[in-house]
Write the structure tokens for this entry.
Amino acid sequence: MNAILKRMSSLVVPALSTGVCAGVLGYRAFSRLVRSDVLALLAQAGTREETVVTETMLQDLPEPVQRYLMHTGIVGKPIVRTVHLRQEGRMRTGPGRPWIPMDAEEHYSVQPPGFVWDGTMHLGLLPVARARDMYLDGKGHMLVKAASLLTVVDARGEEMDQGAMMRYLSEMIFFPSAFLAANISFETVDDSSARVTLTDHGRSATGTMYFDGAGRLTDFVAERYRMVDGRCDPETWSTPVTEYGEFEGLKLPIRGKAVWKLADGDLEYIDVTITELQYDVRTH
């Protein structure tokens, strides 16, 4: 029996060691990819411009949008060029699927618009999957790898371009001075909502922003492509805000969800909280 146990140990231990080494190498390779994407994103952002937001800049906007931007406190603050944030929360891949803890780091360029999101899903202390979502040079690209090794999703194309662009538009609430840019337009819906459109690389994305009486943004709703089993179809997408806080001297959403409004019921698939947020911090 002792001989058998020794033999099993001689086989299992090297196999485990090989697996661990492969996982570490895969994680490092993924990190290098993300860093390369982030550097490309920030390189296009240029240098910081010390343009300060004034009330005059808000005058031609729909009234609910003016109320919202005044509530954030951007008047008197510089217009943002780049953003870096960290998130913690949970996500799931579909109806009836278990929630998986996750943490993420995200970088944004405002002019031109773009982002790189790097998220890691955990099972206990074990990282079970890593994802990089990106919008750069007008193109979207989603890459997901199990244990940083096995490619699960590698999606590009027009639907991904639209989806990534819509994601960026919905997340501009984390850096609201971006709503004053020339590539953004608004259309009044009523006294508590407005449609917002982002134009970039000859393409447009439009969503509806909803506000409460105090001027806080409560939800963003749009038509966005949803990918299921390799197929993309347009569905109604909602990102309700569930908690506010303060970063960079502004009143900003710090917790929110993402929900697909499907024919057979709502699918809430992500719930995240921002734990850190900084403006115009460059990565070298």
The two ends are 57 Å apart (CA to CA).
